[in-house]
Design brief:
By secondary structure, the protein is an alpha+beta fold. It has one domain: Nuclear Transport Factor 2, Chain: A (Roll). Helices cover 33% and strands 37% of the residues. Strands 1-5-4-3-2 form a five-stranded mixed sheet, sandwiched between helices. A hairpin with a 5-residue loop joins strand 3 and strand 4. The radius of gyration is 14 Å and the shape is globular.
Length: 125
């Protein structure tokens, strides 16, 4: 297993075991976060914590696939509502790496859109 795949799995395990605080302990401070549903990119760990603290969400990863310098993760997110009920969505995430270093993490509403984001990296500017 490549280091990028292993690291991506560790991040999901960390979130499951210790929440967002466990995740930010593993990543560089300058990672750009683009959570699915966020209105804009989050460029600080404090901003990521604030965004996550406003929600009661859990994620589950089903598959990890390395594509070039990225890791595509497919899975689901469950959001519990404060007054009962929940919503569950099938999502995809892409972790973008520079070498072995995570530089960006983005969430997508479906796997096809996530794959398109990866493919766009190879398109000429």
């Amino acid at each position: 297993m490549s280091e990028r795949l292993a690291f991506s799995r560790r991040l999901f395990d960390a979130f499951e075991d210790g929440g967002i605080d466990a995740v930010v302990r593993l990543v560089p401070e300058d990672v750009i976060w683009e959570p699915f549903g966020a209105e804009h990119a989050i460029e600080t760990q404090g901003g990521l914590r604030d965004w996550q603290d406003e929600r009661n969400r859990r994620v589950a990863a089903y598959e990890f696939e390395e594509i070039g310098t990225c890791v595509l993760i497919t899975g689901s997110r469950r959001e519990d509502y404060p007054h009962g009920g929940f919503a569950e969505s099938q999502l995809a995430w892409v972790y973008f790496f520079d070498g072995e270093r995570l530089v960006r993490a983005a969430g997508y509403g479906d796997e096809a859109t996530a794959r398109s984001a990866i493919a766009a990296l190879d398109e000429p500017a």
